[in-house]
Amino acid sequence: MGHTLSTLAYLVASVLFILALKGLSHPSTSRRGNIMGMVGMGIAIVATLAQPGMKVGGIGLIVAGLAIGGGIGAVVANRIQMTSLPQLVAAFHSLVGLAAVFVAAAALYAPQSFGIGVPGNIHGQSLVEMSLGLAIGAITFSGSVIAFAKLDGRMSGAPILFNGQHYLNAALGILLVVLIAAFVWTGGNLALFWLIAILAFGLGFLLIIPIGGADMPVVVSMLNSYSGWAAAGIGFTIGNLLLIVTGALVGASGAILSYIMCKGMNRSILNVLLGGFGAEAGGGAAAGPAGPARPVKSGSPEDAAYIMKNASKVIIVPGYGMAVAQAQQVVREMADLLKKEGATVEYAIHPVAGRMPGHMNVLLAEANVPYDDVHELEEINPEFAEADVAYVIGANDVTNPAAKTDKSSAIYGMPILEVERAKTVFFVKRGMASGYAGVENELFFRDNTMMLFGDAKKVTQQIVQALQK
Amino acid sequence: MHAEELAIRAQAMAERALSLAMEARAAASEAMPMVEQGAAAAEPFLLLLTIFMLACFVGYHVVWSVTPALHSPLMGVTNAISSVIVVGAMLATGLGESWLAQAFGFLAVTLAAVNIFGGFLVTRRMLAMFQRKG
């Protein structure tokens, strides 16, 4: 395939990728969008295979790599539990990062393959682009590995903090810039290339360890963005339009998701990245004076079932705790029974519910909850005042009214689901422990709140049994 | 006499102008290749940068139109398409200019392929759940 023809094929692939994203504006067009993405990728791969100068042995290696990697990817994608989606995505991001590092290395050892010079004499501009792609790719890799370990419970989700952490990171960042300058100045010194890689691996690791488990939605979005910028950096290095366009699309997408997540917590991206959130507040609460216990009203699942049976409007507020307890299926059964009793049942999703953007929506969809019943924060908040029952299951901080009134609270200013305006609030919870932010929830002590203590799944099952009687 | 003097001075000036013009033309023709060379070096990069910036804007607008309910599938798709980096890996592997580059290329092809298949298939699984239920 000639140069013009392959460029044209890459253009078609770029357009198909844009349409794939555009399809996600509605569930009904999303499946077609995903297929367009696959077709685009297929076109890109075929156009590349048909480039002049491809050797038979090389093509054999490519096909082997595609088969091995594709097989692993397909098996993992089909076996993964939807609750583990966030760690899967983090793992995938790490692979993109590592692939970017390897492609940068390939471009360094065989620059003639990409028309950017000969070994030992690579164009200065290409070296700048190469080292940027390399550094971003390496940071994406090690950062994603830490995010994966935290999400998968292989390491504690607690922030890891030490003295002078931020100074160390800043110093390493400056050192990275110096090394890149030296790499370009020496015309592509091999040792400097690998030094940059090692330093960037370390930096990615250090940047993510201070960030707490529940801030991972922001981290995963941000690493999504980085993987895009890494692809774009490699695209500039090898002068490939498709990589540049796709990298920009992915980079923009991850950046927007990070922004939405931060806004959902009313925190700046800098505040999240500097990390340590929840560590101090949690420690303080544990060490602080116990004080007189404030009275809370608690009830049995049977009480809850009785009240819900007579309700005409029920809003369910699921949080990550529901996913941990695997309670989504039984929650939907409860909703079905209530609908049979003539109630309208709706679901309210906070932007940061779950461990990645949109995670809770997927979990509800998996439990066969119709997506028309699931609403975002702005949409549903006015409806709580008309609701007879708000059923909060596995969510905590995102329902705390203190976020609106208490300026001293760690979560002050965070947009919340206004469940307290419902006639009765049921709060399913194991005990009285505070949420991630380490803040006690005002809601527990309200007159219209009834605590249902116990495992989310068991409590809901008991309600279902009581409703069936 | 006066007119004659003027005519001579005018002629002298005309001759000087002519020689300056010739000099300028020579300089211009000398400079021309240099200008072209400079433009040739700057142009591809600027062209790529232009495309990159425009693609950022397209991404910005398209992604804001994605419904929040589908943000997880969005991550799945972006994950898959960012692995288009496989194109660079394939060139390094297929052209085989150095065995080391070929080895790195092969590793990158394999890693990117995990992502491409994994990303698109897990997204397909997610989206299949978002069917309209009766």
Automatic annotation (TrEMBL), chain A:
Keyword rRNA processing appears in the UniProt entry: no
Gene3D superfamilies, A to Z: TPP-binding domain (3.40.50.1220)
EC number annotated for this UniProt entry: 7.1.1.1
Superkingdom: Bacteria
Family: Belongs to the PNT beta subunit family.
Protein name, UniProt field: NAD(P) transhydrogenase subunit beta
Membrane topology designation: Multi-pass membrane protein
Domain (NADP transhydrogenase beta-like): residue spans on this chain: 7-465
Entry GO MF terms: NADP binding; proton-translocating NAD(P)+ transhydrogenase activity
Major location category of this protein: membrane
Function: The transhydrogenation between NADH and NADP is coupled to respiration and ATP hydrolysis and functions as a proton pump across the membrane.
Subcellular location: Cell inner membrane
Source organism: Muricoccus nepalensis
Record field: catalytic activity: NAD(+) + NADPH + H(+)(in) = NADH + NADP(+) + H(+)(out)
Transmembrane segments: 6-24, 33-50, 56-76, 88-110, 130-151, 167-185, 191-211, 242-262
One GO cellular component term: plasma membrane
Automatic annotation (TrEMBL), chain B:
Top-level division of the source organism's lineage: Bacteria
Chain segments annotated as transmembrane: 45-67, 74-93, 99-123
Single annotated GO MF: proton-translocating NAD(P)+ transhydrogenase activity
Location of the NAD(P) transhydrogenase alpha subunit C-terminal domain: 49-132
This protein's UniProt keywords: Cell inner membrane, Cell membrane, Membrane, NAD, NADP, Translocase, Transmembrane, Transmembrane helix
Catalytic class of the enzyme: translocase
Assigned EC number: 7.1.1.1
Compartments, record wording: Cell inner membrane
GO cellular component labels: plasma membrane
Matching InterPro entries: NADP_transhyd_a_C
Catalytic activity: NAD(+) + NADPH + H(+)(in) = NADH + NADP(+) + H(+)(out)
Protein name: proton-translocating NAD(P)(+) transhydrogenase
Organism of this sequence: Muricoccus nepalensis
Phylogenetic lineage: Bacteria, Pseudomonadati, Pseudomonadota, Alphaproteobacteria, Acetobacterales
